[in-house]
Amino acid sequence: MSSTPVAKKKSTGLQFKVLYLRRIIQAVFVAIVAYVGVQHFVIGGGPTGAPSFDAFCPFGGVASLWSILTTGSMLQKTNLSNLVLLLATLATALVAGRFFCGWICPFGTVQEWFSRSVSWLTGKRLPLSMPASIDRPLRYVKFVVLAAVIGATIWAGSLVFAEVCPYRALFSAEFTTLGLVVFGAVALGSLLFERFWCKYLCPLGAILAVFNKVSPLKITTDTSACFTCDKCARTCPMNITDRPERIDSLECIRCLECVESCPKEGALEIEMRLLG
Amino acid sequence: MTQFKSGDTRPNGSSASRRGICVQRYVFPFIILAIFVVIIGGAMVLGLWQTKGGQGRGDGGGHEDHSALPAIEIVAQKSSTQLFEEVTL
How far is B67 from chain A (nearest CA, A)? Predict the structure, then answer.
């Protein structure tokens, strides 16, 4: 707690622009991916048709890269675009950790829309908070999913995860029974808990999470300015409650919801520090 | 971007214990998105952005072109039933 007078943020229109900006950028990426899925569904594939949704998945690049390293060849149904997308995603992660999850990933956006629609319909902040005793171990499940997916991909020599991927089920319009079941479960989870898939199950999120520890761009807390109102913790879609001087949690998606919600000017900021 | 050092006093009066470069929240997403877009754009320019055909094992380019094959090989690819049907028709 600080006894210094609170320097409140000026409530200008600019204050809300980063949140709006994020919503707009997210919607643009959703529109692009939805267009790819619909175009492929309507026109069809093949040499003269539209590219498949699979060609626009960075995780396809992960599976294929692993296959190249271990067997010397790419996986079936993957393209160079998967590797390019993976490279672009890893480059953003190297600089700003899980920025991709918070600003680009269309499936993360859809989950946020689910949660917000529930709040809007019920008039309550409905997405629930998982009890810490369950939440903490569940956060590690995504690393198990990642290991299982890579292991199964190498064993089968194909994109086995594509069959169960809820993101693919939603955007590719190529529905498998298993894919729809997983999507239904994740959609239900997202209605109850914010970013359910991202927090507990996403294998790409598990890879990007590691970069949160090394990326130079992090959200930092000015401990002398913070008066621990916990508003940041309440607005965090990933339910990060710890506010160390430098937030390097594996879960931070750099969405800036905390920075925007903070009533104290300068208490939370984005800081670039190459060392430490 | 503004450089703040430990012990600096911020313009709003709050004391700062920051040691790095503060990045404006309005600038931050554009820096990272630029990295993302430049890599994809660069790949497109270099011709590495290939979204069709499938370069993986067993994809086979998605189509077969028989036009360049000599007639004897096309015959060899056909079953005896197909050949019989073609001759009788």
Answer: 16
